[in-house]
Amino acid sequence: MSDALTKSERETLKSIYRLSRDGEEAHTGALAEALGVSPGTATATVKRLAERGLLDHRPYRGVDLTVTGRRAGVVAMRRHRIVERFLSDMLGYAWNEADRLAGSFEHELPQEVEDRLFVALDRPASCPHGFPIPEPETGEIPEMPPLYALEPGDVAVVAVPGSTDPDVVAFLDTLGLRPGVRVEVREKHPFDGPLVLRVEGHDRTVGQKVAQQVYVRKEPKAQPPTAPSQTLTPERREQSA
Asked: Which of 29-38, 133-142, 189-198, 215-224 has the highest mean predicted lDDT (pLDDT)?
């Protein structure tokens, strides 16, 4: 199915998937803004995809992906992230350049080339931004909460979207907050106050607005060791009696 889609159709499916992650329908106005096209162009693409059974479109209500449409959207996102990894790992492009460059030629790749790239890259688990590369047959991508959703004591690995403002990316870089970096929340000030993070051995402070633009893969908390059970020998039972 995904091989028969045009570039605009793939990009539309990816955008609808992102916009509807919280279970809400994607409205064509928000979709047009995300794609950088006019509302009329977005609506025309939506109608084509609806005719193919990839999404449900209710005029003046919104757009929702069907099961087949969600799978096609995930497949398109998988390809994009593999190409990003190729640009970063094999061609040496910076992680925050890979997103823009991947979109210029990913849609022309035959499926065979994508599969070989994935193997040649040693089957990477994530893209250069730190987001997971989904399995080929899945219809969902694991959600990653924003950094600001963490609480003191939480440990997580950072992911930064390619669409993040370059000034924000530069600021994050000064703090050491780059994709793949492991952080620990030391403090979270109340009333939308800043986070204090442990980053590569240093305490860094990040405000709520910036922390909402960074995403994380939360690590499970370490379980405290279980105290070994003590079996009383006959002698110990006598002593404790």
From this structure: 189-198
User: Burial code of 183-209, b = ≥16 C-beta within 10 A, e = fewer?
Assistant: bbbeebeeeeebbbbebeeeebebebe
- Which of 7, 21, 30, 33 lies closest to 65, judged by CA? 21
220 φ, ψ to 5°?
-65, 145
For the cut 60, the answer to whether the pLDDT of residue 133 exceeds it is yes
CB 131 within 8 A of CB 180: no
Q: Is residue 3 over pLDDT 90?
A: no
Check whether 90 has a pLDDT greater than 90.
Answer: yes
Non-local CB neighbours of 64 within 8 Å, separated by 6+ positions = 16, 20, 25, 26, 55, 56
Query: How many CB atoms neighbour CB 75 within 10 A?
Result: 24
Give yes or no for a contact between 62 and 26, defined as CB atoms under 8 angstroms apart: yes
Largest CA distance in the chain: 88
Residue 34, token pair as written in the block = 């995300």
Looking at the chain, how many residues does it have?
241
Residue linked to tokens 């994380």? 216
d(CA 44, CA 195): 44
Residue 39: both structure tokens together: 């509302």
Whole-angstrom Cα distance, residue 188 to residue 205? 10
Query: pLDDT at position 208, please?
Result: 96
Does this model's pTM top 0.70? My answer is: yes
Residue with tokens 């009696």: 241
